[in-house]
Specification:
single chain; 389 residues; Beta-Lactamase; 13% strand; membrane
């Protein structure tokens, strides 16, 4: 499955969203005659379940992708939508008219959960778009899950059991308070900045995924603005806001799904071709005084007695323990002088020819290298490291 969102469709869908919003306000009195507020609790539940399901799908897909790519962006994406999905779930269960959930359902409690979810959503999507992606050395999925769960539990405890002590965000029949509007305008501002960033990234990359995210941000921006004008949590404006939020989440799913799918496809291509090559291809990131292996493929590891799955995250000095520090010295020299290096190392009765070059990825010094077994072949002796230095 592939997205078919184009610039033309993006403009059309964005225009439709604005026209739809204007039409609802212009013909609100006529629509209200058909709109029955008594049905709203059920419709609210359906719309929120759709959004929560999307949050869960993004979380699970990001966790799966992170397991293969160690992408910081995927980890932050999983963290974001775990929190947003959890807070939206409690918002839905706490909505006025729903059954007893720890305490009586109420407008105040549900609105605080709504606001907190929108603030987290806006800020973390902004960070995901702004921060450069990089490969993490360790698996942070469990620490992320524990931290996110703890954060949700703390927020839930405060909103559920100290509801009476919190400022009012909505006064039924009168509308939203200045504090509530302040939260929504802040969220709108962050989403507007995120929209500008996304459109600029689309201009540079021409990525359909970025176009889908930009469209999602337009719908979510309109959602936040709608939630500053409703008079009751059961009125037509509130319903419209939830409808726009659901559409926005749909396009978030499309956008981030294709980003992670593209990364996974590239990873699958590498896993299909490179392991068949003789020798070894690797990437190592400089971490303090060591070089940590973040990628390694090739059939040489089997001959050297290594379990390839356990190599990632290991210092090069541990992967090639008999190199006596020579490999690390050459890597440092390569980065310091920003020059390619070729040298031989004797390892386990084999002669390995290393070829390495410096590279910068996400502001980190990286070594890209290949290794070929030249045991038994004639090779001109390379100059000693001390002589080079």
């Amino acid at each position: 499955m592939r997205s078919h969102l184009t610039e033309g469709k993006f403009l059309v869908y964005s225009t439709i969203a604005i026209i739809l919003l204007l039409a609802i306000h212009l013909f609100q009195q006529k629509i209200i005659t058909l709109y029955n507020p008594e049905n709203y609790v059920g419709f609210h539940f359906i719309l929120e379940v759709f959004s929560i399901s999307i949050s869960a799908a993004i979380f699970l897909n990001a966790i799966k992708t992170y397991g293969k790519t160690r992408s910081r962006r995927m980890l932050l994406l999983a963290f974001t939508f775990f929190i947003v999905g959890a807070l939206d779930t409690i918002h839905t269960l706490s909505f006025k008219g729903m059954p007893f959930f720890f305490t009586e359902s109420s407008v105040a409690k549900a609105t605080w959960f709504w606001v907190s979810a929108r603030v987290f959503q806006a800020l973390f999507i902004f960070l995901i778009l702004l921060l450069p992606d990089r490969t993490l050395n360790k698996d942070y999925r469990w620490p992320m899950f524990i931290f996110a769960t703890t954060l949700v539990l703390i927020i839930s405890f405060i909103f559920i059991f100290f509801e009476k002590n919190l400022p009012l965000l909505v006064i039924e029949g009168k509308g939203t308070t200045p504090l509530k509007n302040g939260f929504e305008y802040f969220v709108s501002f962050v989403q507007f900045v995120s929209l500008i960033i996304t459109l600029y990234q689309y201009y540079l990359e021409k990525s359909e995924a970025k176009l889908a995210i930009a469209l999602a941000l337009i719908y979510l921006l309109l959602t936040s603005l709608i939630f500053t004008v409703y008079q009751s949590v059961f009125d037509l404006d509130n319903f419209t806001g939830h409808l726009f939020k659901t559409i926005g989440f749909y396009y978030i799913l499309r956008g981030f799904y294709f980003i992670s799918s593209e990364q996974e496809l590239e990873n699958q291509k590498e896993q299909t071709i490179i392991p068949q090559l003789p020798g070894f291809v690797f990437k190592a990131i400089k971490s303090e005084s060591e070089f940590i292996l973040t990628y390694g493929e090739g059939n040489m590891t089997e001959h050297l007695g290594h379990d390839q799955k356990k190599l990632l995250g290991q210092p090069l000095a541990n992967v090639f323990p008999d190199s006596q520090g020579i490999l690390s010295d050459y890597c440092r020299l390569c980065i310091n002088r920003q020059e390619e290096r070729t040298f031989e190392i004797d390892l386990n009765d084999k002669v390995l020819l290393f070829s390495i070059k410096p590279f910068v990825e996400n502001d980190q010094d990286v070594i890209l290298g290949t290794i070929v077994d030249v045991t038994g072949m004639y090779q001109e002796p390379t100059s000693k490291l001390n002589a080079i230095i």
